[in-house]
Amino acid sequence: MNIRLIKADGFAPAIYAMRSPMSSWHLSDSVWEITQGDGETIEKFVLGEKDKELSLKLQKAGPEHCKHLRMIQAWVEIEAPLYLWKQIDTYRFGVEKVSTSTMHTLTRRPLTDDDFEHDSMNNDYLHYVLDSINSSMEAWRAEEDPEYKKQIWQSIIQALPESFIQKRTVMFSYAALRNIVRQREGHKLKDWKEFIEFCHTLPYSFMIFDE
Q1: I want to staple 58 with a disulfide (CB 3.0 to 4.6 A). Which of 66, 73, 86, 155 is the partner?
Q2: Do 34 and 122 reside in the same domain of the chain?
Q3: What is the CATH number of the domain that holds 90?
Q4: 74 CB-contact burial (10 Å; exposed 0-12 / middle 13-18 / buried 19+)
Q5: Range of the domain at 38
Q6: Residue 127 and residue 86 share a domain
Q7: Is residue 103 over pLDDT 70?
Q8: What is the end-to-end Cα distance of the chain in Å, rounded?
Q9: Is the dihedral of CA 190, 192, 196, 201 positive or negative?
Q10: Which burial class, exposed, middle or buried, applies to 147 when counting CB atoms under 10 A from its CB (0-12, 13-18, 19+)?
Q11: What is the pLDDT of residue 156?
Q12: Which helix (DSSP H) or strand (DSSP E) does residue 147 occupy?
């Protein structure tokens, strides 16, 4: 499993919106740091202590009070097995996903052990499945009859183990990440442990963990 942050954004408008219910914008102490580097101006949002304190207070009051976290987004590239994607697909609100196409890319090359999530490839059954799928893909490429070609393709898709790795670009709101962490912390799948460890590395992760 591989996870890479593409971008996290929305902190400034979210913090502004956080203070709207009490019209307390004048109490905000967050700032924009402006630096010069390589001939360009770089702006970085820096959260102030007062804004952090208010965010924590609203977070601990419950999801109906920390609505500003729905405005903060993290775009993440994830390579994970199908069995994990089935669980991630449980989360619909504040989560958008675009995946690589199995239909368009699966038959471009033979599959290898790197295409699967595994602790050890000393697994006769997995080797058998891998050899069987690759043989079917060779038959699919050689087949000229359209109907039989469809049947071979269907058999390949049906034979793919749940350990097959698929890459997706996913957009999570921080509110969605809070919910995922709360429900999956301590899960027996090591993949969830890796995902939660990654969430700790996100900017202002206290918004996810209340830390």
Answers
A1: 66
A2: no
A3: 3.30.1360.170
A4: buried
A5: 2-99+165-209
A6: no
A7: no
A8: 26
A9: positive
A10: exposed
A11: 84
A12: helix 146-159
How many distinct structural domains can be found in the chain? 2
Residue of 9, 140, 17, 169 lying closest to 80 (CA atoms): 169
Whole-model pTM? 0.84
Q: Is residue 105 part of a domain?
A: no
Quote the tokens at residue 180: 């995922």
- Whether residues 51 and 91 fall in one domain: yes
Q: Is the same domain home to 184 and 80?
A: yes
pLDDT digits 0-9 by tens, 153-177: 888 888 888 888 999 999 999 999 9
The amino acid that residue 45 corresponds to is F
CA distance 162 to 191: 14
Residue range 107-156, pLDDT digits in tens: 778 888 888 887 655 577 778 888 888 898 889 889 889 899 889 888 88
